[in-house]
Design a protein that fits this description.
The structure holds 2 protein chains of 2 kinds. By secondary structure, chain A is α+β, with helices and mostly antiparallel strands. Helices cover about 35% and strands about 20% of the residues of chain A. Chain B has 3 domains: about 5-110, Probable tRNA modification gtpase trme, domain 1 (Gyrase A, domain 2), CATH 3.30.1360.120; about 130-215 and about 395-455, tRNA modification GTPase MnmE domain 2 (Four Helix Bundle (Hemerythrin (Met), subunit A), Up-down Bundle), CATH 1.20.120.430; about 225-380, 3-Layer(aba) Sandwich (Rossmann fold). Helix content of chain B is about 50%, strand content about 15%. In chain B, the strands form 2 sheets. Chain B has a 7-stranded mixed sheet. The chains are: A alpha+beta, B alpha/beta. At the A-B interface, helix 8, helix 18 and helix 21 of A face helix 3, helix 4, helix 5, helix 16 and helix 17 of B.
Chain lengths: ~625, ~450
């Protein structure tokens, strides 16, 4: 095929899924001329699995993306069918927002945002190979021979790399939802020397809402209170659709046990490693045989469709068995299956091949983000896309790279985990992966990250001003409560009694009274009203900052200690093989990960404290044993 | 952690006139300032470097004076480690120095690993790199050996016990995590505050038991709890005074558990004694009269050593015989006092009442027999198995310090639970407890929580 020159860009993004769109938007908005190449323009920001965004940890990531100027939060705020705040009965660190999306509206809205972005070109095309010279990416060409030159390239190909769909004994080459897989690019990445792993994920069947007997299920409505992910959202959707809850029946379990031999999971047809947090129904019933039933959530896929996602029934059993399974579930006896569930296997690159900027170590100026890096989830993908886009643009514009720390954001935890520890299964964020989750809250994502986004040019002046004002209000109110004394009088005792708290015996600072578990900000506010009523967001942060001061302080001390280790940088050209004393196993993993700091090195499994000590000696002495060429 | 503040006893263990606890690290001066009080009230942080100061160590929690000390202040970089260094010079003997060390560890320093001061000196460029290979080997060997010592010295039972506690905590944590990460899953029991309190209380009690049963640890920490009993006027008070005069009481203390009992510490031939109810003895009141039968029985029961004083010049009374009954089966030394007076006591009967118990005769008035008594005490304790200054002590002290830390964090968790703090916040302290216990057995793999999560619960979409 003859090739032709099709254009030159600062940054090319391959793929327009959740990682691709955030990568393209952040790069373009920072000032890099950006091209997005996607196989199918109608599939931008498509949700091939759950029609849902957010939830514990992930919801906080959406807030973080928004605080740094990303699009995900704004788009879901405009296109959801319901929203719920989860864990409201628990502590402030684990509150999380989750939205059910209208899949189609979400895609349309995201596509529109991309189309309107000035510095961004959107084009349909299938990438065949990268152009690499002297270990540096220079561009790429597509199946039709179009050559695009670029200073940086970001690959966000999701589950498309050598994707294979599996249903029962049927296995065929395919991307998710019967889209075209990406085979040429996968082979070429392997040729370039990337280490690839094979992962597996899956999705449940969809049924027609018209054929569901909802009377046998429990309604799961959204919150009445208006909710939003984005700090910029001012208009709220009030017309929400409910989800529905039902359960597997004894018959469901029998069907699975009778047909287990037909499951590709158990017959050995699937070799890819699947995620433990997202097991198929076969897995759940085999591994937890003592559970008499499992929950099934029925989630509408949008406002203009009858398709309903059957959450909890993820499976790769043959279609006829899937039909029987569906019919065995109360409420779904007569349900029409519109699409069968399936498993999909795909290639991912081992993420320890990346720097914390998400640039590959093998090829300069090449970045990868999203499921290709071994993660799972739209939010995890979007977060990486955002960071890869920022760093690619920073690279082009010769600005400083941006690496978020584990105490800055869940995004920091995600990236650090990936590039430091790698992953042996599709990686999902969990709150338990964060050491400092009291610092990484839903409510304070803006406090943590807006300033960073603003400095990168991803946050508008207007929004930044509003942020500064909010910050000032929070600080002022905290100071006021620390200085204001509440005296025991009738009004005060009456308010305390509403909470079943014990009477105030002596005058006390308002902040100290707020530390009582039963007292809320709104009660303090009534005892000692501020000159002007604050917004709920301000009140929430004032309350959390004061109430959990002791715990927050403890976390901050831990962070401070870790910072010293983070600040001990390891020179990029260090030759671990030349350092005697480091254990062989440690040498091998250090060579693979090439950590940037002592702290990062200490998080690598296989590196023990003695190795770290020896490493420190070399660095502290400023004498790198030998410099690798 | 490589840049925290470390502390260790830097003089040989055993009986010197002075022992030194050395602190090194960024927070060395701050930690010292938390506990060190100069008569003039000036803080170390405001003092010039390389100066020495007199004052007292006061436990900030209890307000109790722990030691009278001299403190050397050496600020970075002209120090052995090139970090801020504080050296606390205290009285010699195991008890004093150990109390000082424990206090410092409680206030935020970490017990140094063997050779860690030298390692830091090296890391900070204090030692010449020409010996780099040798030092590297040393670090490797010391770190590995410390680990081996820590692991091999711990008997398998302790390791299993701690492993069991950690597993219980891990399951609790996994349950909290699953409630957070999968809030809608109904087949997972909610980890409620009462449930959390139940689990944490159990763990706390087990840690307490461990601290109690590790008798050596307890003795090093608290001294050998010693009770002097006997009828009025048999010479309890004289015995107490002679023990204290001979050995110089180290500290006066009001014990937290039984508030009305005053205790004093003495060091008898390297054996730390915690003399219980010294006030009662001084006032020549009987412990039973003073604090009641129940409490005194408890005190006796908790004692490690009982000195039962008899009057040589009087015949055995019913009261004496009751005391024999009360102490049967316990580590006891019989002190037959007043040998300067004509003997009336029936020694054969005494021997009948006490099989296998050491008997010492004294005339405290004439200062006779005290040496013999002290030897008996030391003999009972050492039985040839405590070697001062070896690694047994170091690694045990490490375990004790860690167990104490674990106890503090689990208590924090319980306190928070009592106050109604949300479970996922309490969980911070529970996680910390789990980590600290892991440090004892050398196991702190973070991923275990996530593995537990997925093996314990059925999750997914």
């Amino acid at each position: 095929m003859s090739k032709f020159e099709a254009g030159t860009f600062d940054c090319i993004v391959i793929g327009a899924g959740h990682a691709g769109v955030e990568a393209a938007l952040s790069a373009a908005r920072m000032g890099a001329s950006t091209l997005v190449l996607t196989m199918n323009l109608d599939m931008i920001a498509f949700m091939p699995c759950n029609p849902s965004l957010g939830g514990p940890a992930k919801g906080i990531v959406v807030r973080e993306i928004d605080a740094m100027g990303g699009a995900m939060g704004k788009v879901i705020d405009k296109t959801h069918i319901q929203m719920r705040m989860l864990n409201t009965g628990k502590g402030p660190a684990v509150r999380a927002l989750r939205a059910q999306a209208d899949k189609v509206l979400y895609q349309q809205e995201m596509k529109r945002i991309l189309e309107e972005e000035e510095n961004l070109t959107l084009h349909q095309g299938v990438v065949e190979d990268l152009i690499v010279e002297d270990g540096e990416v220079k561009g790429l060409f597509t199946q039709v021979g179009a050559v695009y030159r670029a200073k940086t390239v970001i690959i966000t190909t999701g589950t498309f790399l050598r994707g294979e769909v599996i249903i029962g004994d049927l296995k065929y080459s395919s991307g998710p939802n019967n889209q075209m897989p990406s085979i040429g690019l996968a082979e070429n990445l392997e040729k370039l020397g990337f280490d690839m792993v094979r992962f597996k994920t899956g999705t449940p069947p969809r049924v027609n809402s018209r054929t569901i007997d909802y009377s046998k299920t429990e309604i799961q409505p959204g919150d009445e209170k208006p909710r939003a992910f984005s700090y910029e959202t001012t208009e709220f959707i009030t017309d929400q659709l409910p989800c529905w809850l039902t359960y597997t029946a004894p018959r469901t379990h029998e069907i699975i046990n009778e047909n287990l031999h037909l499951s590709p999971m158990y017959s050995g047809a699937i070799k890819g490693k699947g995620p433990r947090y997202c097991p198929s129904i076969e897995d759940k019933i085999v591994r937890f045989a003592d559970k008499s039933r499992h929950q099934i959530f029925l989630e509408p896929e949008g406002r203009n469709t009858n398709e309903v996602y059957v959450q909890g029934l993820s499976t790769s059993l043959p279609e006829h068995v899937q039909r029987m399974l569906i019919e065995s579930v109360p409420g779904l006896e007569k349900a029409e299956m519109m699409r069968a569930g399936y498993a999909i296997e795909y290639d991912a690159i081992t993420p320890t091949q990346l720097w914390p900027t998400l640039e590959t170590k093998k090829i300069r100026n090449l970045y990868t983000a999203g499921q290709i890096n071994g993660t799972s989830g739209y939010e995890e993908a979007a977060a990486q896309g955002l960071m890869a886009g920022i760093n690619a643009a920073a690279n082009v514009l010769e600005k400083e790279e941006v690496i978020l720390g584990r105490a800055d954001a869940y995004i920091g935890v995600l990236v650090d985990d990936l590039v430091t520890k790698g992953t042996s299964e599709p990686y999902r964020l969990l709150t338990s992966r964060a050491e400092y989750r009291l610092l990484l809250r839903h409510d304070n994502a803006d406090m943590r990250l807006t300033e960073i986004g603003y400095k990168l040019g991803l946050i508008s002046e207007e929004r930044h001003d509003a942020f500064l004002m909010k910050k000032q209000q929070i600080d002022d109110e905290i100071t006021r409560l620390r200085q204001t004394t509440i005296k025991p009088n009738e009004m005060v005792q009456a308010i305390i009694q509403e909470t079943d708290g014990s009477d105030l015996r002596e005058p006390m600072k308002a902040a100290d009274l707020l530390k009582r578990p039963e007292i809320k900000y709104n009660q303090i506010e009534r005892m000692v009203p501020p000159t002007e009523k604050h917004s709920e967001e301000v009140e929430e942060q004032v309350e959390i900052s004061i109430k959990y001061e002791g715990y927050i302080e403890k976390s901050l001390q831990q962070v401070e200690r870790m910072k010293k280790m983070e600040n001990k940088k390891i020179p990029e050209n260090i030759d671990y093989n030349a350092i005697s004393g480091i254990a062989t196993e440690a040498k091998s993993v250090l060579n693979e990960v090439r950590p940037l700091s002592i702290a990062q090195a200490s998080r690598i499994s296989g590196v023990n404290p003695a190795d770290i000590s020896i490493l420190l000696v070399y660095i502290e002495q400023g004498k790198i044993a030998k410099v690798s060429s | 952690m490589h840049f925290d503040t470390i502390a260790a006893i830097s003089t040989p263990m055993g009986e010197g006139a002075i022992s030194i606890v050395r602190l090194s690290g960024d927070e060395a001066v701050q930690i010292a300032d938390k506990i060190f009080h100069k008569p003039a009230g000036k803080k170390l942080i405001d003092e010039p470097s390389h100066t020495i100061h007199y004052g007292h160590l006061i436990d900030p929690t209890s307000g109790e004076t722990v030691e009278e000390v001299m403190v050397s202040l050496m600020k970075a970089p002209k120090t052995f480690t090139r970090e801020d260094v504080v050296e606390v010079n205290c009285h010699g003997g195991i008890v004093a120095v150990n109390r000082v060390l424990q206090l410092i560890l409680k206030e935020g320093a970490r017990l140094a690993e063997p050779g860690e001061f030298t390692k830091r000196a090296f890391l900070n460029g204090r030692i010449d790199l020409s010996q780099s290979e040798a030092v590297m080997d040393l670090i490797r060997a010391k770190t590995d050996r410390a680990m081996n010592v820590a692991l091999t010295q711990m008997d398998g039972k302790l390791s299993r016990l701690i492993g069991g506690l950690r597993q219980a905590l891990l399951e609790t944590l996994a349950q909290v995590e699953v409630n957070i990460d999968y809030p809608e899953y109904d087949d997972v029991e909610e980890m409620t505050i009462p449930l959390m309190i139940q689990k944490c209380t159990w763990v706390k009690e087990e840690i307490d038991k461990l601290l109690r049963t590790s008798s050596q640890g307890k003795i090093l920490r608290e001294g050998l709890s010693t009770v002097i009993i006997g009828r009025p006027n048999v010479g309890k008070s004289s015995l107490l005074n002679s023990l204290i005069q001979e050995n110089k009481a180290i500290v006066t203390n009001i014990a937290g558990t039984t508030r009305d009992i005053i205790e004093e510490y003495v060091n008898v031939r390297g054996v730390p004694l915690r003399l219980v109810d010294t006030a009662g003895i001084r006032e020549t009141e009987d412990i039973v009269e003073r604090i009641g039968v129940e409490k005194s029985r408890k005190v006796l029961k908790e004692a490690d050593l009982i000195l039962l004083v008899l009057d040589s010049a009087e015949e055995l009374t019913i009261e004496d015989e009751r005391l024999f009954e009360a102490v049967s089966g316990m580590d006891t030394i019989i002190v037959i006092n007043k040998t300067d007076l004509p003997r009336k006591i029936d020694l054969v009967r005494v021997k009948q009442l006490t099989s296998n118990v050491k008997i010492v005769t004294t005339s405290l008035l004439k200062d006779e027999g005290v040496d013999e008594l002290e030897e008996a005490i030391a003999g009972l304790f050492f039985e040839g198995n405590l070697e001062a200054g070896d690694l047994t002590y170091v690694s045990n002290a490490r375990h004790i310090a860690l167990l104490h830390n674990a106890r503090t964090t689990i208590e924090d968790a319980l306190g928070a639970a009592d106050e109604g703090v949300p479970v996922d916040i309490i969980q911070i302290d529970v996680t910390r407890t789990w980590e600290i216990l892991g440090e004892i057995i050398g196991d702190t793999v973070q991923d275990s929580l996530i593995n537990q999560l997925f093996s314990q619960f059925c999750l997914g979409k």
